[in-house]
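Handout, section 3.2

Students often ask what a structure token actually looks like in practice. Rather than define it abstractly, here is a full record for ATP-dependent DNA helicase. The first block is the sequence as you would receive it.
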Amino acid sequence: MHLLVFGDLLQLPPVSDGPVFGPVPTETLNKCVQSVAPVHLWSLLDYDELRINMRQKDDGTYKTILANLRVGTVSDADTNILKTRVINLNFHNPGERLYKLCDYVKALSDAVCIMPTNDM
């Protein structure tokens, strides 16, 4: 049987949830592969790393920030650049803040919003 597995092993975890990739308990793994002996799944795979970032290929600064972010080595320069992208919506009412944010994003041609929680 041939199996292709794709994924970003350094992917940031979902907001308010655990990482997508993590250790699988031995009992669960043995149940899934129906084995009574321990299975070392990673030793059964041939690993090829994709090294060209196609999504951010035209924005070297953003590509560098994301590469640093994914391994936890964000520099002061990265932080300063990200701080210039903060949208200040000083409204106490969450509904009003949401409408203002939607209006702001609609006015942008290619917006990407990174939210700190699912509630925002």
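Discussion prompt for tutorial groups: Residues 66 and 72 are 10 Å apart (CA to CA). How would you have guessed this from the sequence alone?
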